[in-house]
Amino acid sequence: MNNKKLVLENGMVFEGEGFGANKEKLAEIVFNTSVVGYQEILSDPSYCGQMVCMTYPLIGNYGLTDEDYESKNVFMSGFIVHEYNDIPSNFRFTRTLGEVMEEAGAVGISGVDTREIVRLIRDNGSMKALICDIDKPYEECMKMIHEYQYPKNQVPTVSTKKVWYSRTPNPQYTVVCVDCGVKLNIIRKLNQAGCNVVVVPYNTTKEEILRYKPDGLFLSNGPGDPENVTPVINLVKEMKGVVPILGICLGHQMIGLAYGAKTYKMKFGHRGGNHPVKNLDTDKVEITSQNHSFAIDIKSLEGTGLRLTHINLLDNEAEGMMDDINGVIAVQYHPESAAGPEDSEYIFNRFMDLMKKGGASNAKKNRY
Ligand SMILES: NC(=O)CC[C@H](N)C(=O)O
């Protein structure tokens, strides 16, 4: 029975049935084209302040498992789906999507025409949206939407408040991870590659980081506009040349800004599990997983010391950069994600190679 509605900033209304928390939510609406992965999307802190319209028409059918969360907390606002299935069929499942969303305060609406919504976002760009009770007066909804301001900086909300460790049995290196909303699978991949990981709050200083004697620095993914994350941008300026640095997604963008490149907000971003990315060094194409609204302006890379290493074959947008002298690598896509293909895992091995070469303290001597 229809009891909720989705109201878009452009005035359009879609009626449907609620699942998850019985609440009202205002957020930015974006779409994701992944066929699977709703649990990873729900628990990816980069979606803080966003509601996600899934293009795949059946969501919830394999439930949620204890091992597959990308963070302990849910920060995203809600899901817009065609059909929600609350009776999962999967031997690994422990909880249903609706149950976890209800506990986390995330709202869901099902039974809406997600194809039409996605076309609207594709044509008009991502926009503000409200999920609320079906009988809330339309004028009131539009007033709320127009008065709503996107939060300025959500990294402090999602970043860890205290330092924590993720160790591996036979560590070769120690990596300090600056947590701007890190996805746990990145930490798992660093552990698997042979790194002990120290996860620190986003505003940790260079002096504090050096106390952990890192062999490498990792800058995580995270929500919002990279320009707002000044402490991390300044940290990159101070740490480049001290140890090798790897940045993923928001980390990639903050590295670009620290080097003097520019970022811009894309019309509707990239979110999905099958984005083709070309590695310009090898000419190989990787099938990648992505979630971002902002991107590096390729023209602005000139003269910064960063060279473009990867591009998106759908729209030629920047997907990777490198500072060969100081051992700094960055990718816009998610090399840790495995929505099927695992083409991009070599990025972690490249980071290991950089640390093997003696760290960036020797970087000026060793051209990476
Ligand atoms: N996944 C991410 O790290 C996203 C980065 C940034 N918030 C963007 O939307 O572009």
UniProtKB/TrEMBL annotation:
GO BP annotations, alphabetical order: 'de novo' pyrimidine nucleobase biosynthetic process; 'de novo' UMP biosynthetic process; glutamine metabolic process; L-arginine biosynthetic process
InterPro entries on file: Anth_synth/Amidotransfase (IPR050472), CarbamoylP_synth_ssu (IPR006274), CarbamoylP_synth_ssu_N (IPR002474), CarbP_synth_ssu_N_sf (IPR036480), Class_I_gatase-like (IPR029062), CPSase_GATase1 (IPR035686), GATASE (IPR017926)
Active site residues per record: C249 (nucleophile), H334, E336
Catalyzed reactions per annotation: hydrogencarbonate + L-glutamine + 2 ATP + H2O = carbamoyl phosphate + L-glutamate + 2 ADP + phosphate + 2 H(+); L-glutamine + H2O = L-glutamate + NH4(+)
Sequence ranges assigned to domain Carbamoyl-phosphate synthase small subunit N-terminal in this UniProt record: 2-132
EC assignment: 6.3.5.5
Keyword ATP-binding: yes
Keyword tags: Amino-acid biosynthesis, Arginine biosynthesis, ATP-binding, Glutamine amidotransferase, Ligase, Nucleotide-binding, Pyrimidine biosynthesis
GO MF term set: ATP binding; carbamoyl-phosphate synthase (glutamine-hydrolyzing) activity; glutaminase activity
Residues given in the record as L-glutamine binding sites: S46, G222, G224, L250, Q253, N291, F294
Domain of life: Bacteria
Associated pathway: Pyrimidine metabolism; UMP biosynthesis via de novo pathway; (S)-dihydroorotate from bicarbonate: step 1/3; Amino-acid biosynthesis; L-arginine biosynthesis; carbamoyl phosphate from bicarbonate: step 1/1
First-level EC class: ligase
Region (CPSase): 1-173
PANTHER family: CARBAMOYL-PHOSPHATE SYNTHASE SMALL CHAIN, MULTIFUNCTIONAL TRYPTOPHAN BIOSYNTHESIS PROTEIN-RELATED
Subunit annotation: Composed of two chains; the small (or glutamine) chain promotes the hydrolysis of glutamine to ammonia, which is used by the large (or ammonia) chain to synthesize carbamoyl phosphate. Tetramer of heterodimers (alpha,beta)4.
Function: Small subunit of the glutamine-dependent carbamoyl phosphate synthetase (CPSase). CPSase catalyzes the formation of carbamoyl phosphate from the ammonia moiety of glutamine, carbonate, and phosphate donated by ATP, constituting the first step of 2 biosynthetic pathways, one leading to arginine and/or urea and the other to pyrimidine nucleotides. The small subunit (glutamine amidotransferase) binds and cleaves glutamine to supply the large subunit with the substrate ammonia.
UniProt similarity note: Belongs to the CarA family.
Name of the protein: Carbamoyl phosphate synthase small chain
